[in-house]
């Protein structure tokens, strides 16, 4: 009888420790998820800042970007068009990265709202250039998002 009570106590005690371990595991996973979200968002912001700082620091690139958004074929020479193409390709890649981070619930509503605004704005600068130069290099899901976004502008 005494042995049965001890066995029952051990069973209850081990069950209690399993529940406590599971709670601890849940708390740690949530904490880790928040850290991953913060790090992912920070990386997106850092990448965006690199583009902005490049244009701010390089007068030639600033001129290329300004002319490129106006009339890339007419106002830029071959080198300028190449630089503008790669500059805008990098921006669109960053946007698609943000889009997939949103799809995987890494970006929250506030962060995504800001990126959605930027995507719509970037598209509105030159939808013809995006169609001709960049659309084919993106996933169909991202293309659909850009086109839906553009319908609202």
Short description:
Helices cover about 90% and strands about 0% of the residues. With about 150 residues, the chain is mostly helical. It has one domain.
Structural class: mainly alpha
Q: Summarize the helix and strand pattern as letters.
A: HHHHHHH
Number of domains: 1
Distance between the termini: 78 Å
Instruction: Determine the mean pLDDT.
Output: 82
Low-confidence stretches: none
Helix content: over 70%
Rounded to an integer in angstroms, the radius of gyration calculated over CA atoms is: 25 Å
The counted number of beta strands is 0
Main sheet makeup? none
Query: What's the overall geometry?
Result: elongated
How many individual helices? 7
Q: What percentage of amino acids are in beta strands?
A: under 5%
Polypeptide structure, described:
The protein has 153 residues and is an all-alpha fold. It has one domain (38-151). The chain is built from 7 helices and no strands. The radius of gyration is 25 Å and the shape is elongated.
